[in-house]
Amino acid sequence: MAGRGTHEHPHGADRLCEAGDRVYSRAVRRGRVPRRDAEPVPCLLELALLHPDPDDMDFLVPTAPQEVMTRLLRGMFEEVSESHRRVGSAVAAFERYAGLGSQVQPLQTAAEGTAIRVLDGLSRIQAAMDEATEACRTEVLTVQPGGIRREHELSEGLHRALALRGRGVRMRDLYTHVARHGQGLLNYLELMGDAVEARTLDEVIDRLILFDRTVAFVPANADRTMALELRHPALVEYLVTVFERLWRLAIPLTAPLPDTGIEGISHRERSIAALLAEGHQDAVIAERLGISVRTCRAHIARLSETLGAASRTQLGVRIAQAGLDGPPGTAEAPAVTVPGRESRIAR
After folding, report:
1. Out of 76-90, 114-128, 162-176, 219-233, which region has the weakest mean confidence (pLDDT)?
2. How sure is the predictor about 289, in pLDDT bands with cuts at 50, 70 and 90?
3. CA–CA distance from 82 to each of 73, 85, 88, 155, 291 (Å)?
4. What pTM does this model have?
5. Could you tell me if 149 and 175 are in contact, meaning their C-beta atoms sit under 8 angstroms apart?
6. Which residues contact 40 (CB under 8 A, 6 or more apart)?
7. Residues 15, 18, 22, 24: is their CA dihedral positive or negative?
């Protein structure tokens, strides 16, 4: 889309093409337009004049004309040689748009645009994250699901992390236990030093990034090409509370994982056993724990061998008998004698 818009609509927000002018004017008058109306004019999305309606992704809502004009003027100050030619037309154009918007009652979704903003596309997400990083002064809280962090994922946000460390910003990160096995994460934490504190859990919520407890970013679709920028105080405070409660339950990355108390069963296998007891399929368990399905099934095979189970049904019974069907820290489980072995399995 970006390439098509560049070739077919070679202009900026201060001098829209006729088709773009019509669609944006209609959006300002009505408060929103169907997404299909903007398909012939991708320039409106590329220039952030329209963005998805948080309440209905089939519609687009306009960025307030005053906000657009402010953004334009900021760019013009950076290019003084161009400003004398462009300021007049930009001001005239957006004053006219503002006049159109004042003639009708704005929709509630348009009024809430600053509290909940949909970021469509990786470039807009990165730009919003960079802006929030630049404004951050005290604290960043993040939840990073998905197991071992790949090198390119860590390097993508490294420039932001270094900028935050340079300003003395405190960072706290939550990962799954699986992330402990990634050398890239260990290298990243060593580079960041005392600026970052990391803890891990069996499983965490989806990705979450909080800046100064005033703005939060969460995914808006499965492949994370869209995100929500949240600035509503109640929403942000709720997410902060979720993070803090998970943080208290998590184990510092510098501390070892607790022993299960059952010979031959690792901490990860104990977590898998609890999820199996809840009736989850292998793929679901793997996703929640941040491991591959193949690795998950290898752990299940070891569980079956350790508990002396010849089938999945028998494994479920053995898990319950060994007290592995609940989270760590539950009531003491009865002892279980595994067929063919003299040892007793108990927590």
Report:
1. 76-90
2. confident
3. 11, 6, 11, 36, 53
4. 0.60
5. yes
6. 19
7. negative
